[in-house]
Amino acid sequence: GSSSTPLLKSKMSSLIIEMLEEHVAHKRLGLGELAVLAATVEDLVHSEAMELLTMAYEAHNLSMQEALQNEVQEDLVIRTFMLFYTMPWSQTARANSSNLHEQLKT
C-alpha cells in the first residue's frame, strides 16, 4: 500500500527505485523488473525481521548466540518481537526495562 512506500524508499537502493518508477511511468514493467523488486522486498523484510529479533533479545540482555533457557524466555522474546513489529514506536521502550515490561503485561 501507499503507507509502505516511505519505508521501501528509505531502505531500497535509489537505482532500483528509479528503475521501477521509470518503468511504471512508461507502463513497461516486465517479469525481470518484478523479480528484482520481489527479491529486494524479500531482503528488506528479512533484514527488518532480523533487526527486530536482535532488538528483542537485546532488550532482555539475552544473546542470540545461546539457546533460550526456558519457555518463559521464549515467550518474552516472541512477545517483545511482536510488540516492536506491531507498534514500532515501542522500540524506544527497550532502553527502559521497566517500561518495556509494563508494555508486555497482558
Query: In angstroms, what separates the terminal alpha carbons?
Result: 31 Å
Q: Order of SSEs, N→C?
A: HHHHH
How many individual β-strands? 0
Helix content: 55-70%
Task: Classify the beta-strand content into a percent band.
Answer: under 5%
Low-confidence spans = none
Biggest β-sheet, characterized? none
Average per-residue pLDDT, rounded, comes to 78
Structural write-up:
It is built from five helices and no strands. The model has no long low-confidence stretch (mean pLDDT 78). The longest helix has 29 residues. Helix content is 68%, strand content 0%. The chain is elongated and about 55 Å long. Helix 3 crosses helix 4. The protein has 106 residues and is mostly helical.
Main traits of this protein?
single chain; 106 residues; mainly alpha; 5 helices; elongated
List the helices and strands and how they pair.
Layout: H1 5-11, H2 14-25, H3 31-59, H4 71-86, H5 97-104
Summary?
The protein is an all-alpha fold and 106 residues long. It has helices spanning 5-11, 14-25, 31-59, 71-86, 97-104.
